[in-house]
Structures are given as structure tokens and as C-alpha cells.
Amino acid sequence: MRLTRKRLCSFLLALYCLFSLYAAYHVFLGRRRQPPAATSRGHRKGAAPARERRGRESTLGSEEWNPWEGDEKNEHRHRIKTSLQILNKSTKGKTDHRVQIWGKAAIGLYLWEHIFEGLLDPPEVMAQWKEGESTVGRTHYSFITGPAVVPGYFSADVNNVVLVLNGREKAKVFSATQWLLYAQNLVQSQKLQHVAVVLLGNEHCSNDWMAQFLKSNGGFVELLFITYDSPWINDVDVFQWPLGVATYRNFPVVEASWSMVYDERPYLCNFLGTVYKNSSRQALMNILKQDGNDKLCWISAREQWQPQETNESLKNYQDALLQSDLTLCPAGINTECYRIYEACSSGSVPVVEDVMTAGRCGNTSLHHSAPLQLLKSMGAPFIFVKNWKELPAILEKEKTINLQEKIQRRKTLLQWYQHFKTELKLKFTNILESSFLMNNKG
Question: Is the Cβ–Cβ distance between 227 and 194 less than 8 Å?
Fold first, then answer.
């Protein structure tokens, strides 16, 4: 009996060893089955891979863009190509420079989330303190923003700082000045070496208060990136910066999708905004009504400007952009408006009123295509009009364009806008490196 039991135990032990060897062979040496290729229908339906990549890596990197069709090799090739375009200077080595961006104006979110394609922690809109990190080439960038970011109440642990400030009106200028004085004190006490500023400038280009801080005028700010067609722009130490989308109204990063490109849109055009008395916007409304085109467009006009959006009004606005082939962009206080960039992000072609507004904005010794010099210099595929009387002919032509032509036009617009942001990112980082980072150990 004992012998039989002993033989049984030996047999079970041998069987266990054989099974273990068999399992190990299949785990470590056996051929792995290849995953089945995704069908074109599966790509179309979900657009999930594009969303997981935040729509930023491959959707707009190819002239033959169609991320929901084609095999995995094409998708991988597009991804690599676009990644190289965005970070063509990047290496896997240790970063040589560190730059901290202090975001004290809403355009800082456009810089960080839309141009740098960076994330923020925590992601909640109402968070008092947000921060993020990104590496471009051999430079490490950190970003901080929020109401809790106050002069003197956080440590500036780098030598290089980019201040993002709002100088649009007097109350904002006062706050911006306090930040500049704080930075100036850090430079004088040798806690900072280099400072650049991204400025949401005055819509009339009246920014004289800023001049004293520029290094070219005896101050400490070495580089200035400023919105609107400022006559200061010289591409040496003062550069034009885009207004971007209205992040202060929580306009989001819009992901490219199948429906955005390929679906029929029910409206010829849209305009949702404030109509000022005796303005070109009022003339625009009258022209739309005369020809009955207001019934073919999504129009929602109000008489008084509202600084904030409700969830409902923001959704209506985004829906209007996504469901219209054209977005009408009449001039306000300045020709450049958030609507232009928001339309681009939604694949709706901006129809822009190409006129100079009152104030000091205009041409410089280097640029002679004001207004919107930055957009024009980068080949923006917009429709420009000098007078809204041109609109009826544009809309009549629009009625004759078939869906395939509109699809190609949307692809062109979305590809251009991605390229625009990529080029701005490279230009911005290259200017910082060449101006004050090359010989800096910070």
C-alpha cells in the first residue's frame, strides 16, 4: 500500500513538472499570435485611437489624411512623421535648460494646452493651482497657473522665466505691472537671469506702459511676444503672438473626428456674437436678412457683450461651428478675434473682415500686410472680405460646392491649423534658446 501511494505521488510530481515545462515553453518561446487587423469600419466608428492620442499625433500630419481608413502601417508612419515635425529637435539625453512659465492671463492656457499640447494637474477648471511639464528638444518647460499663483508666495527655482500677462485694460495693467516689478526684483537679486513676456495687449495697441520694462529701453525683459498688429514688432526682441481661442470662456482643445471632416453640415454659415450699433456687424446682419441667407445660416445676435458663457451657450456656439461650412468673423474693437481660431479648430472656414480698426495697430517696417499679419504670413486658408457686401456672392458660390470639395477644404484648414500651432511652438522655443538659453546653465 505504501509502495503504491509512493508511486502515485512520484507520478503526480512528474506530471506537474512536465506541465510546468510545457507552459514555460509557450510563454517564453512560443510564437505570439498576431492581433487581427482593425477593419476600416472599426476605425471609422470609434475614432478612439485618435482620442487616446488627443488627436494630435497623426490626424493632421498627412496630406492624404484619413485616420479611420488604411492599415496600421500607414497610421504608424503618419504618427512618426508628425512626431518628428513637432519635436524635430528632441533627444533622449539630459535636458540642458529649464524654463518656467508663469501663466497669469488666459492666453497662457492657449500657449500651454493648444500650442505646447501640454496637460495640467489637476485638470479641474476651478482649481486654485495648476501645473504641467513638457520637454522640447533639450529644454524642460514647467507651467504654473491659477489664482493661488501670487508674487512672493511660491519658489522660483529656475533661472529662466516666461511671464504670461494681461495688459488689455487698466485694471489688468496694474496687476501685470506688479508681476513685472516682482520679476525685476528677482533679476536684481540674481535669483533670475532671464525673463520673457507673452502679453495679451491692448486692442488699440496702446501698450506704452510696457515699454519701460523692455531691455532695449533699459529694462530687464529680453523678449516680448505680443498680440495684435503692434507697431513694436521687429522680429528681433518683439514678436507677434496669436490671440488664440477664448480659454477664459472655457473653449476646449477640440479633437479632430470623422464627423467633423466627412459629414454634411446643415448650415452655410454662422455668427453668434454681439452686434454693436453703427458697426460693420450691424451691416452684416442687414445684408444677411436682405437676401434671406439668415435662414440658411445659424445666426444668434445679442446687443450686449457677455464676458462669460453658460454651459448651454458654450454648447450652442460649439455646435454652430461644427454644423456650419463657414464662420463669419466681423471686426470688433480689433480685427483679430477668438472666433477665427475657434472656427479653425472646428473645420469651419473663417470669413474674415480684412480691415484695419481704430487705434495704433498697423504695419511695421518689416511687415506691410496688416491686419492679421501673422496669420497671412503663414498662409491662412481663409476667405478675406473688405466689405460685407461681398458676402451674398460668396454664399451663392457656397451653394454650388459639393460635399467632396468641402471635405477637402476642411482637411486643408485642419492641417493648416495644426501646422500653424506646431510652427509657433518651434518658433517660440527656438527664440528662447537662441536668445538667452544657449550659454545658460539654468
Answer: no
What beta strand segments (E) does 174-282 contain?
Answer: 194-200, 221-227, 238-241, 267-274
Residue type, 117: E
Distance CA 126, CA 144 (A): 14
What is the residue whose three cell numbers read 509557450?
Answer: 26
Q: How far apart are CA 137 and CA 246, in angstroms?
A: 29
Q: What angle do CA 205, 210, 215 make, to 5 degrees?
A: 125
Using the structure block, give the residue that is written with the C-alpha cell 533622449: 92
Contact criterion met (CB below 8 Å) for 385 and 331: no
Give the 3-state secondary structure of residue 300: strand
Q: Are the CB atoms for 268 and 399 separated by under 8 Å? A: yes
> DSSP labels for 229-282?
--TT--SSSEEEE---S-GGGT--PPPP-HHHHHSPPSEEEEEEEE--TTSHHH
Amino acid at 40: S
- The C-alpha cell that represents 391 in the structure block: 458676402
Tell how far CA 46 is from the center of its chain: 23
Q: How far apart are the first and last CA of the chain?
A: 81
What are 23-49's pLDDT values in tens digits? 555 444 444 333 333 333 333 333 333
The Cβ-side half-sphere exposure at 11, using a 13 Å CA radius, reads 6
pTM of the model: 0.80
DSSP state of 416: H
DSSP structure string for 366-413: S----SSHHHHHTT---EEESSGGGHHHHHHHHTT--HHHHHHHHHHH
Distant-in-sequence, close-in-space partners of 439: CB < 8 Å, separation ≥ 6: none
Phi, psi angles (nearest 5°) of residue 289 = -70, -35
pLDDT digits (tens, 9 = 90+) for 136-158: 988 999 999 999 999 988 878 89
**Cα–Cα distance between 385 and 328 in angstroms, integer?**
10
